[in-house]
Write a structure and sequence with these properties.
Layout lengths: L5 H11 L1 E3 L1 H5 L7 E5 L3 H7 L6 E2 L5 H5 L15 E5 L4 H12 L6 E3 L2 H7 L9
Parallel strand pairs: 1-5, 2-3, 2-4, 4-5
């Protein structure tokens, strides 16, 4: 058995899921059919802001927050909206979208290049209260 590093895991995830460009994703902001899910840690949100309307679910809690049987379930993740994951640079969000697909979420996707690419494309941001 060969150990896999994070690069291989991210590449496998990207091969299985849809990756949106920042321009494609920015057209979905405010669309009630989509929910942006920020999988970064809280200090990253405070530092850089988040995509308007996004919910924050730390990558470490994702499986618990997605599962309706979990006491940590986040209701918004089961709203029937298509989930668009993002992180700082695209690695954690690719893994998150792939894991969500493993858990039965249909049409899970992520923003390629993460918030870094989003900011470079002048995507809108808001700062948490």
């Amino acid at each position: 058995m060969t150990n896999k590093g994070f690069k291989e895991l991210v590449a496998e995830a990207n091969a299985r899921i849809r990756t949106l460009t920042p321009d494609e994703a920015s057209r979905l902001v405010g669309d009630d059919g989509y929910l942006f899910v920020d999988v970064r840690d809280r200090h990253e949100l405070e530092q850089d802001g988040l995509i308007p309307g996004a919910v924050n679910v730390s990558r470490g809690m994702l499986e618990f927050c997605l599962d309706p049987e979990s006491p940590y379930h986040v209701e918004a993740l089961s709203s029937g909206r298509k989930l668009v994951f993002y992180c700082a640079s695209g690695g954690r969000s690719a893994l998150a979208a792939a894991r969500a697909a493993d858990m039965g979420v249909t049409d899970a996707c992520h923003v390629g290049g993460g918030l870094k690419a989003w900011k470079e494309a002048s995507g809108p941001l808001e700062h948490p209260q």
